[in-house]
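quick one before i forget lol
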Amino acid sequence: MAEQKSGQMMGRRDFLKVSTVLFGFAVLGANFMSGCSGKAEKYPSGTIEVVVPTSEGGTTDQLARAHGQVWAELLGAKAFSYSFYPGAAGEVAYSLFAKKTADGYTLLFGNIEAEGVMYVLQKPDSFKIDDFIFMNTLSKDPAVILVRKDAPWPGLKELIEEGQKRKLNMGVSRWGSLDTVAGIILGKQTGANINVVPYGGGNKARVALLNGEIDFLMTKLAAALSIKDSVRFLAMVQDENPYPSLSDNCPPINKVLGTQVPEVASTRNWVVHKALKEKYPDRYQLLAKTAEEAFRSSKFQEALKKVGQPLELYTKYIGEEQTMKYLQQVLKTAAEYQDILKANK
């Protein structure tokens, strides 16, 4: 009887061991099949949300969609959906974006100049700009100095000489921008009496120039092209002129005057969470690779034509390293002149 009981107990133990082993194989097999099917790690498997810090229908929206429609196709995403949060000069959008999960299913489409200045001046406590990667630059739209076609100054030197004799009114679209900083630095370094006049909008500033309300205007190249037949380009606020055919081959400001005015340009950038690159490096690499492929696609060029963008501004793709370098430059300049930018004008 003892031998029979012992045999029965051993049988139960063996059964439990065999059952455990079989269960383990079943789990491994299920995981293997799941991995083979691509369901566990496939990215992207759904819609990607794009957070935009400006209003719907503007240039930023148009550019995000023009690039996004080609990019989504290359990524294999179901679609890009767009949400617009124009409040507080971009702070609202960045605060919301910061709370999103860093898994590559939410991107932001922004402008380093505008949002870098916002970050320095407003000092938001809802996010840190170091928590983001400005992954690339699709376009760099430099600031230019314009005068009316009938203006008496043939070049920038003559304009500055005039400013050394009397006050010159320089228009900008808004006070809290690097255009304002560049104008003030220009005056200080040349001894010209330059009075910066903000107009609360680019169109208002351009109309003011054409109506003779101001002596000259500092604005971005893309905006200047809308009045190109009525103005002359005196200088570009860059160390080199990358768009001579669009700007009458105007010279770089510092080469003409021997000044050290910082470069000023609006940019269009895709932004991701820094944690995405750390947690999902494969997803980040896929995003970076396909974003560049989309930029170089003829479909993107066709989309730009439809929204009336000058194609010359979209011929050089700038990757993460140089994009982040420009971000730091903007933050440094804004911090240095934040007291001026905060002035209530």
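fyi Strands lie at 48-52, 80-84, 106-110, 132-148, 167-172, 193-198, 216-220, 231-236, 265-273.
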